Amino acid sequence: MPHRHRRSPSIAPAYTGRLSTTPVPSLRMPEKSMEPQAAYRFIHDELMLDGSSRLNLATFVTTWMDPEAEKLMAETFDKNMIDKDEYPATAAIEQRCVCMVADLFHAEDLRDDDPSTAIGVSTVGSSEAVMLAGLAMSWRWRAKVGDGENGWRTRRPKLVMGSNVQVVWEKFCRYFDVEPVYLPMAEGRYVITAQQVLDAVDEDTIGVVAILGTTYTGELEPIAEICAALDELAGGGGVDVPVHVDAASGGFVVPFLHPDVVWDFRLPRVVSINVSGHKYGLTYPGIGFVVWRSAEHLPEDLVFRVNYLGGDMPTFTLNFSKGGNQVVGQYYNFLRLGRAGYAKVMHCLSDTARWLGDQLRESEHFELISDGSAIPVVSFRLAGKRGYTEFDVSHALRAYGWQVPAYTMPDDATDVTVLRVVVREGFSADLARALRDDTITVLNSLDELKPNGHFDDVQPFAH
After folding, report:
1. CA pair distance 398, 59, nearest whole angstrom
2. 270 CB-near residues (< 8 Å, 6+ apart)
3. What's the pTM value of the predicted model, to 2 decimals?
């Protein structure tokens, strides 16, 4: 009887046999199955070609969490957040998170005995949150101007915001047919002003967007001043325009670093706020929240009720199905850290950012735009004529593994190029020292080479 070769599973090679003779299909599903270890190894090895997320200083998104949080999130990958009747505990955790966010931002009418008084929802990052907040402002404007002869059907709504807004606001305006009114920046001023807002609003303005921690520089826009100016305008018989605060980057920082800064629902003109849990909320992507001052600012017509998953479920989301594990991860952080823990983390990150900013300033190669004191973000530009550009610096740092973005500022400051470092949980003081040392090495090399903007057209980062 002929001997048949049998390959023992215990000694099945990882990189020979089928793996070495058959290319992995990239565009079509393979005809045959493969061992789970082989599928894992193929994908694992290809992902090694990615940059290290921990060294990606371009992103605000969380790249490290406690192992206990990772375990909880892995245990809840399979739970669909929309199915509140089947997963009541996860639904309750979501509402608790919404309540905690609303309380942090001083929302109205919150009562410990009735969590439903918090008006808000968890979202897939701030992108969905922005869309929901914009829709609410748009529908309230419709109700205000009415449906008569000169009603909303014959007019185009407008949204006033700086040219420094994140691109999701441009998407909202395009997707929902709202006219964006962009307020320009200027060299040395990368936030909007109250006077710009006053000059831009009119009867068709559905709202004004103010940013707590801009993506470009991490600066805080003068929200209290903007609200005061709009209060005075409305009090004098002018238009009455609400304010939405885009706190995607700063909402989990400013309450702990700068508790005396008034920017949230303590200002009566602020009607809604979005925040990203996957940024300084310290949770893996993607999780965000949008909360409203009170129920009157979320039109009832935007809330849908379904019962085909069991039970009556009100829902106001653009997504229907999403995993419950991000909400669970956010709840873990809220319980694990509490207000004292968040304050300690933010102060630590701010100290690291400010130390790095001081080091960059002392190198005499850079001019600081933001020093990490508002939120833990350092933005800077080259000082004087160096014979190379910020893009050259960014490209050279990538050889050391660091991803430090270089980009041009928004209208009307597009001739200004900036480098930015986002200091996140997991970016230790020791890593900051390593970045400082590598930056000095890079600068010494560029001082000799003087590539004169050789990498200006090879932008490693898109805003």
Report:
1. 15
2. 223, 227, 242, 243, 244, 245, 263, 264, 293
3. 0.91
